[in-house]
Amino acid sequence: MSQILSKVTISPEKTLRDALELINSQALQVALVTDHDKHLLGVITDGDIRRGLLNNLSLDALVTEVMNRNPRTASPSTSKKKLLQLMQQHSILSIPLVKDHILVGLETLKSAQQQTNHANPVLIMAGGFGTRLKPLTDKCPKPMLKVGNKPILEIALFNFIQAGFSNFYISTHYMPEQIKEHFGDGSQWNVKISYLHEETPLGTGGAVGLLPTDIPQLPAIVMNGDILTKVDFQLLLKFHEDNDADATMCVREYDYQIPYGVISGSGNRITDMVEKPVQRFFVNAGIYVINQDIIKSVSANTYIDMPTLLEQKIADKGEVLMFPLHEYWLDIGRMDDFKQAQVDICAFGLER
């Protein structure tokens, strides 16, 4: 158990007096009741003790008399943003983090409100022609098309900024001057933006070979510039690091319903019939985390797609993981997608 947890945990044999002393001695304003195996039994606040005293309990009563036996808890993998929302929604100052019924952490309102800054490079690929969105892209690169009143690329950039990222690279090819003119060096958002220009299209992975050699030696997030999403980038990065991955690909579940009855058989004997079954697959969501050794393996101005790059790592016995997305996600590849984005922009809170 961490040092912080050891200061706020108390056994069920202790009294209200003991709990009050613990709460008053710490700044976390809570006592967590655990058994000898570190199972969380309940939570006690100053208010719980006061209510107990008003109900004629003495300070020598056991903590089990007043503790909240069904406190609001969360998984240790829950993002700070979600934890902050929960605490604000339920007007509580802290949330115990529990895994398999074992107390493993405590998130407080104060710590959740503190912005975590990430030095990791973020590469947004914005060089595509957007052919399927013609005529909208005849005079405008696809990432600069407006959803609501902001370009797609600006919405994506701001989501990263909100998550604490500030070191950005944007790869360009088609009409790069429009992108550079709008975003500049990023100073208007207090971030740094550099540009990687593809003289010829380099595929979905080739732009990583244009990244400078002096970037921070940390995992980089790479994302297609035509994606709208509410994915928690902090949680994605934490997943990648906690699992010692070489690369992590975000994936979406895709359902496909076969429009016919599917027949299984043995020889000419029917063994099973399923009417219009639904098959489920994981598909590439166009968001990746890759380690520096993968970046360094791509030579400048080399055409390669990101799946091919990851397949090479898999062939080298690398740890390539997938991160399923359950949050909002939309790849704006076709006109119908672009129209859907105009509907979703307010419904899903995509715009600041």
TrEMBL record:
Alphabetically ordered keywords of this record: CBS domain, Transferase
InterPro entries given in the database record: CBS_dom, CBS_dom_sf, Mannose-1P_guanyltransferase, NTP_transferase_dom, Nucleotide-diphossugar_trans
Matches recorded under SUPFAM superfamilies: CBS-domain pair, Nucleotide-diphospho-sugar transferases
Domain (CBS): residue spans on this chain: 1-59, 67-122
Superkingdom in the source lineage: Bacteria
MF terms (GO), sorted A to Z: transferase activity
One Pfam family here: CBS
Keyword Transferase among UniProt keywords: yes
PROSITE patterns: CBS (PS51371)
Name recorded for this polypeptide: Mannose-1-phosphate guanyltransferase
Organism: Shewanella sediminis (strain HAW-EB3)
